[in-house]
Amino acid sequence: MLDEILAASIEVEFLVESRALARKLKAAGLPVTAGDVKRTDTYLKADISPQTCIIIEDTGRKYLHKMIESVRDAGGALIYVLGVGIANDDREKRAQDVRDHFSDVSYLSLSELFEAPLLTEFSRALTRARVQQYQRYLADADRILILLHNEPDPDAMASGLALRTVLHRTRQTAVIAALEGVTRPENMRMVNLLDIHVETIAPESIHEFDRVCMVDVQPHYFPGLDRVDLVIDHHPEQHGYNAVFKDIREDYGSTCTILTEHLRAIDASISERTATAMLYAIKSDTLFFNRQANRCDIDAFSYLYPLADANLIRKMEGAEITVERLDLITKATRQGRMVEQVFSVFLGDVPRDDAIPYVADFFLQLENVRWTLVSGVINGMFVMSVRNLGYTKNAGDFVRRYFVDIGSAGGHRAMAKAVIALDAFQARFGVIDDDIGRKMSELLLEFLHEATDEKRKKEPVGSH
Ligand SMILES: [Mn+2]
User: What's the rounded Cα separation, in Å, for the pair 292 and 414?
Assistant: First the structure.
């Protein structure tokens, strides 16, 4: 096996104890000699140098130390011991023993070497079975709807394109649509540069499609829609709806990461346009791996990277800054307050609801800021975005605690949102204008201090 793995890139020679085994291996075409593996002579004869990499097979025999010492005496310096056919517990003991006696010798085991790639392969096979199931289920539909959330963001749109690729369909037979279309500048730029068509449809026309799929969102988002065919999403799983197939992975940084795995599992070829959209989606949903990203997001990113157009991505990213947003940043700088690494500001009436998360993300970049709390009023609704770094406490828990009974409130560990009718907000908190920013920051500090108080209680007296 090692010959097969290594011989293509490295010159390999084998040394075995038994002459019979040497003859067998030689017959199989391997460069092999037989010799006493405990003797320094044997290694001198083999002409090893400090640059020779020596792998010693450890099958649990007693004279492992003697072998390592002989190799060293003959001038060997790059020594590995490879545990083969040893039970897990014994292997750990032997590895420890080698580490204790020979600090420069590394212990590897066959199972460790093979575990990761095999598990990846098996989980890919499981994903393949899952994808083939929904492919078959959707195959005979004339027209499929791929429904996105309102104001589709890069992850939603790219996931739409990716799912269309998985289903081997065209713009006519798999319609990517939303109830409210794209208006934000950065999303518009993506639509234009990648020529993405997101149709705006009325809620009633959802039922005109043979099958309904959704990506980056779940059915509860759409009132009155409680049954769909396929849901692929990375937001926390919601209940109270039926989906024939679903793949929801809360710990993933983007829906596109899940879809990259689906595409890889079925060996689909991904067009440059789709790969570019997906790569941009992963970057944008994870703030380039600055929030809520895992190993799979990084794997998906490196898989898509060579398939995508990096220049287009750079162009799409530049669209985030607009004069309108700069005005709000200026206002927030003047009116915001910083208390214990919490930046909070109430912006008053804001023209567009994307301004609020934008300002929240922006101020999170400032030195010493660990939480941002940005709120404003849009069409008579109080809207607040919460962001954090360092995950001391859960942003979603914070908004749910204070707002879920008077409006909608939810989110992840690092980002959350609350939307409350202005009169309900006033009735609860009784504050107006600039006092809103102060009040919100007090609530958050109260919430954050709770954690430290609990921790302190657990610590023994006098430990400070
Ligand atoms: Mn997303």
Answer: 7
Q: How far is the CA of 199 from the centre of ligand 1 (A)?
A: 19
**In angstroms, what is the span from residue 285 Cα to ligand 1's centroid?**
6
- In tens, the pLDDT along 242-283 reads 999 999 999 999 999 999 999 999 999 999 999 999 999 999
Ligand 1 centroid to residue 255 C-alpha, Å: 5
**Cα of 235 from ligand 1 centre, angstroms:** 7
Q: Which of 272, 290, 318 is the last residue of a domain?
A: 318
Q: CATH no. for residue 65?
A: 3.40.50.720
Over residues 79-127, the pLDDT tens digits come to 999 999 888 788 889 999 999 999 999 999 888 888 888 998 999 999 9
**For residue 216, how far is its CA from the centre of ligand 1 (angstroms)?**
5
CA of 253 to the centre of ligand 1 (A): 7
The closest alpha carbon to 162, from 288, 312, 298, 303, belongs to 303
Handedness of CA 162, 166, 167, 168 (dihedral sign): positive
The span from the CA of 390 to the CA of 377, in Å, is 28
Structure-token pair, residue 365: 């970049």
Give the distance (Å) from ligand 1 centre to CA of residue 297: 12
Q: Which residue range(s) make up the domain with 75?
A: 2-112
**Positions of E strands within 59-155:** 78-83, 106-109, 144-148
- In Å, how far are 343, 392, 409 from 370, measured between CA atoms? 8, 9, 21
The CATH number of the domain where 195 resides is what?
3.90.1640.10
Domain count, the chain: 3
- Shared-domain flag, residues 295 and 404: no
> Does residue 347 sit in the same domain as residue 373?
yes
Q: How far, CA to CA in Å, does 111 sit from each of 4, 68, 87, 119, 309?
A: 17, 22, 10, 11, 39
